[in-house]
């Protein structure tokens, strides 16, 4: 029911590419049959794209997107229609060379309208209005440990995800599920548009499609960490349209850190029993002072380089450890902390009482956590990840001026973030990699902030200064729904 061990599509595509015969496919034979495009191998896609003068770079889903876009544009040019099409031409194309250049430009701006090749199939019709609601069928197939799809034994059960363990470790079964996605025609993905009330010169929006580095070489040793405030784990797993299997297959993480699981201790054993084989280790801490509240977890594979060596629950301070907010797992090369820092609350109840009484959040919790991390650091580097409930700088929040006294952006919290973490030598990896980039990890439900990208960056990977040079990528996955937060990731060379 949780996250399996599967290689991502990039490695599957590379393997298929190595064994595929180099050949192109006749354009006329596939232009009216999208299923044929989906069935093409990576090499066939690349060869076909090159034969029509279209750049052929990226993973299979990128190549499929490029070919689909070319076919639609070709049909549009021939019919001289400009109303209903995926790539809008703003002027008449007079030559093939001009058409190619315009295609490349529009494809880069509108890559979001193409569905992921591993699950989503394109809707058959588009409405003529500027926006439509498309029902996209997500049909995932039976997958074995090598990641090879099979068309056998597909089942559907009420559009919900379930997984069944077979007698062999090699197979994991995922049912088809249907989700409805609102697609605004010719509009970019919301997170790729700079959304900020007071943007500064040089700022740009975070786009994981273009800002992430290429995959590391296969012989490079690294660990891939992911963190997510799930805002209720049981609710997430029951959510129609969400597939834990697809997420794990796509991201291929080694360690998953969760926050705000909202589990009770009585729930943990059932969750652990439902984990897919391959993740031998999982650790959970729950709130005992307020049931169904807070809670953190760390789930790990059992490979030698990421095998857990020890685990600690909480800070070791009774006043701070009743809500299940911190979990520490020791690995060979580092300590990993999954943390859910207390929110200052409505009316800033946990921030400021009055000038004569120091706040719990700033002078007690943050201070204790920072000191705990420095103590751990005496033996090996430390990585803190999770929902730290602080948008550190104005670039980290859509509306800084309007939230000066809002929990998560008060001067007290931001100063505490500096004093207790950054000044003690821990590095904000995303901000170091992307100093002028606006990327959010939280969008409130109340005003539909996610659709307009009016968000906050509250989730972090902070690392000891001694290993900051080993960070290959610190990234955000804004396309993953199911919670008011999105996952974040860190790739660390070993």
| Beta strand % | 15-25%
User: What strand line-up does the widest sheet have?
Assistant: 10-11-9-8-20-19
Oligomer: single chain
Mean pLDDT: 74
How would a textbook summarize the main sheet? 6 strands, mixed
Explained architecture:
The protein has helices at residues 9-19, 27-30, 34-39, 42-51, 60-79, 96-109, 208-211, 233-238, 244-251, 265-273, 360-376, 411-420, 429-433, 449-452, and strands at residues 131-138, 142-144, 149-150, 163-165, 171-174, 177-184, 204-205, 222-229, 255-259, 281-285, 296-300, 310-313, 326-330, 335-340, 382-387, 426-428, 437-438, 459-464, 471-476, 488-493. The chain is 26% helix and 20% strand. Helix 4 packs parallel to helix 5. The protein contains 14 helices and 20 strands. The strands form five sheets. A six-stranded mixed sheet has the order 10-11-9-8-20-19. It has a six-stranded mixed sheet with strand order 12-13-14-15-18-16. It is of the alpha+beta class. The longest helix has 20 residues, at 60-79.
